[in-house]
Design a protein that fits this description.
Order of helices and strands: EEEEHH
Radius of gyration: 15 Å
Shape: elongated
Strand content: 35-45%
Low-confidence stretches: none
Length: 93
C-alpha cells in the first residue's frame, strides 16, 4: 500500500510518502512475533535555499480492517489526516 501528499505553502514544498509492506521480512518474526506490517515514511521539504529529507521506519500489529480505514481512507485526505486516523485506530485496540 502506498500513499503520498504534497503541500505547497509558506514558500516551501513538502512531500510526504508512506509505503506499507503487509508481509514483513521473516527475520523480524524472531523479535516481534505479532508483527503484521512494516512502513516506510519519507518527508521531503524544499525551500528556496534548503532541502531536507527524513526517512522513518515503523512497525505495527494493527489488523488489516483497521489499517485499511486508517491509511487508505478517502483519496482526497492528506497524509496527516490518515496518520491521525491511524492513531485513533490504535487507541481502539
Amino acid at each position: 500500500m502506498r500513499a503520498y501528499d504534497v503541500d505547497k505553502a509558506h514558500g516551501r514544498i513538502e512531500i510526504r510518502r508512506i509505503a506499507v509492506r503487509s508481509k514483513p521480512p521473516a527475520y523480524l518474526d524472531k523479535e516481534w512475533p505479532d508483527l503484521v506490517r512494516v512502513a516506510r515514511i519519507e518527508r521531503t521539504r524544499e525551500t528556496k535555499v534548503l532541502c531536507s529529507r527524513q526517512v522513518v521506519y515503523a512497525i505495527t500489529s494493527i489488523p488489516d480492517e483497521l489499517m485499511s480505514r486508517a491509511i487508505v481512507g478517502s483519496g482526497a485526505r492528506s497524509l496527516a489526516d490518515r496518520k491521525q486516523a491511524l492513531s485513533r485506530a490504535r487507541r481502539h485496540l
